[in-house]
Amino acid sequence: MRSTINRPVRWLASASLVLVVMAAGAACSTESDSPAAGGGGGDGDEVAQKAAADLEAEFYGQGSYANPPAEGPEAQRGARIAVINSGVQSPTGTKQVEAAREVAELLGWDLTVYDGKYEPAEYQEGIRQAISQKADVIRLYSIDCPLAETALAEAKKAGIPVVSQEAADCSDVDPQAESYFADTLAFSQGTFIEWAKAMGESQATWLLAQLGEDADVIEVSVPELVVTNAIHEGFAAAMEEQCPACNVTEVKAQIADFGPALQEKIDTALLRNPNANGMALSYDDLMTTGGSAAVMASGRNDSLAVIADSGFPANVELIRNGQGQDAGFAYDMGYETWAAADMINRLLAGEQQGQSGVGIAVFDADNGLPSEGKAWSVDIDYKPVYKAMWGAS
User: Fold this and answer.
1) 210, 220, 320: which is closest to 267 by C-alpha?
2) Domain containing 165 — which CATH number?
3) What is the pTM of this model?
4) CA distance 335 to 128
5) Torsion of CA 351, 352, 358, 360, to 10 degrees
6) 146 or 89: whose pLDDT is higher?
7) Which residues are bridge partners to 113 per DSSP?
8) I need a surface site. Which of 96, 180, 308, 333 has the fewest CB within 10 A?
9) What is the domain range of residue 142?
């Protein structure tokens, strides 16, 4: 979910994980007057005050990030690891592969990377090639189990463990389904789905801190993706809990809409909701392939508080330049990929995965905005900790 190209990415999420999951509709109430972005909630607005306190305590700065585990097995050298990446054309996919190669060299692994090109048929082909090459572990990045279930069943039959980074197991989607993942990267919030829900919560909290009890929000969701469906669920639940009287209008988008069709959907939503003063978009491509253009064309850039994600340069620059986005949730792909390597190393050593320390944070123009041309990154020096643990340098 991390590019400005007009094609499916990730997840995003990662991110890549296209799976139709029915999203619950967000509740609607009466429209309210529209304050300027950041201008909602006076001194007596308890909704804004609580959200601002939660934002400071839970999401600004390092957010829910924590230090990596200090103890674990030494590097299990010589392992053959196959990475099946949903697509290397997006910033997330590119960064994941770069970090995976860096850490594999340290651990002494023979790493093979397969580009899934955002096509389920390619995901399955990559898994089958890994099986034929007798990989010790297959690592999926941002590929949900249902998209590659047939090939995953073949890997299970061959006795090759499959682990996931930012992906849902078949049993995560359907409790009655079989599980095909030997392990899944855990986050500070818990599971992958719980982590994604926290992203939606972070968006609701930021908007309510700006707008308070006057919030009248358009949420642009993508129900067909597991991760963005979870973001929607987290957003809707947080809005209902923190401000049940606030107005939320959900606009459902599809990956196929990216570009002019997406801009038209958001244009229409803005026209139909003239009192809307906030907007949440569940991932970055919604902003860079239609959202920003729609906000700017509406003439309401100064009266809308807009949050998307993800801390990559394209979205950071929209915030810096005031071009339709004001904030985003962010995560550090480098840290996440090193944590996933530690998960694999523990699996090879016969040990259980520990707490990864990977979480979620929120940034905006006044809080944690990366320097020009840079992506958001956590202020935790995790590499020396892992190197010491693995006996690598």
Assistant:
1) 220
2) 3.40.50.2300
3) 0.86
4) 28
5) 170
6) 146
7) 83
8) 180
9) 80-188+333-356+380-390
